[in-house]
Amino acid sequence: MSxxxxxxxxxxxxLNQLILCVGRKGSGKSVWAREVFRNWPAIxxxxxxxxxxxxxxxxxxxxxxxxxxxxxxxxxxxxxxxxTRWIANPxxxxxxxxxxxxxGLALHPRSRRTLTWIDEAGEVFPSNRTGPHARILLxxxxxxxxxxxxxxxxxxxxxxxxxxxxxRVVMYDVPNPSDVQRMAESIGVEPAVLKRTxxxxxxxxxxxxxxxxxxxxxxxxxxxxxxxxxxxHAQQ
Length: 236
Ligand SMILES: Nc1ncnc2c1ncn2[C@@H]1O[C@H](COP(=O)(O)OP(=O)(O)OP(=O)(O)O)[C@@H](O)[C@H]1O
Ligand SMILES: [Mg+2]
Fold this sequence. Notes:
It is built from 8 helices and 9 strands. It has helices spanning 29-39, 95-107, 121-124, 132-140, 160-165, 177-187, 191-204, 231-234; strands at residues 18-22, 44-49, 62-65, 83-87, 114-118, 146-152, 168-171, 209-213, 218-222. α2 runs parallel beside α4 (132-140). The longest helix is centred in the C-terminal third of the chain and has 14 residues, at 191-204. The site of magnesium ion (MG) has 4 residues, from α1. InterPro entries: P-loop_NTPase (IPR027417).
């Protein structure tokens, strides 16, 4: 366990990677995802927003659509990048298929680099019911130049592949022991060690988090991510 001002490995935006954020309601997952999503440079961005509250902000040129497009818009000029947000309709009879098709937009065309933010990963990667595109994203994201930030309050409710394939796990307050157990088993850390680490992080104060870095197989304690100006206005 390392800690301090800037102890954890900086996120390399040139690397394709999957990042999972977990923690109870209101613990800070969406804020983290939003900040990292906003600040990720030089990439086409895609928000799959089942509940309509994952808004990266107008100031970064987000275009929100209610109808799922057949492909992500192409940037107008070289060097420009698009930010598209689709608000899913949970009432639609094709809701699950639509969500999976939405993941497919991040994968094709294959050579295009994309960053996808899925604020309700439980809807897109439900245990044992992950769709074909979602499965490809989890298993082969690198081959498709696709990175993703996935948020989910309860790790036990999502496909175990998400934890198994995550390059980083951002852990806020996870009060349920079965969630801690599942994470510990998946990342290969003693459950008691992870539990103690999470408790110590929580004791630091609101919005501190524990970061697991799979490449280094290491846990880091991290201070609250700074929130961009205008955050409140961007929320609905
Ligand atoms: N790093 C932070 N610094 C300051 N305030 C924060 C930070 N992170 C979160 N907050 C505050 O906590 C609120 C809840 O955070 P957030 O929406 O990220 O929770 P969440 O984990 O996504 O919850 P839910 O499961 O309900 O979606 C934010 O609206 C903000 O006011
Ligand atoms: Mg949230």
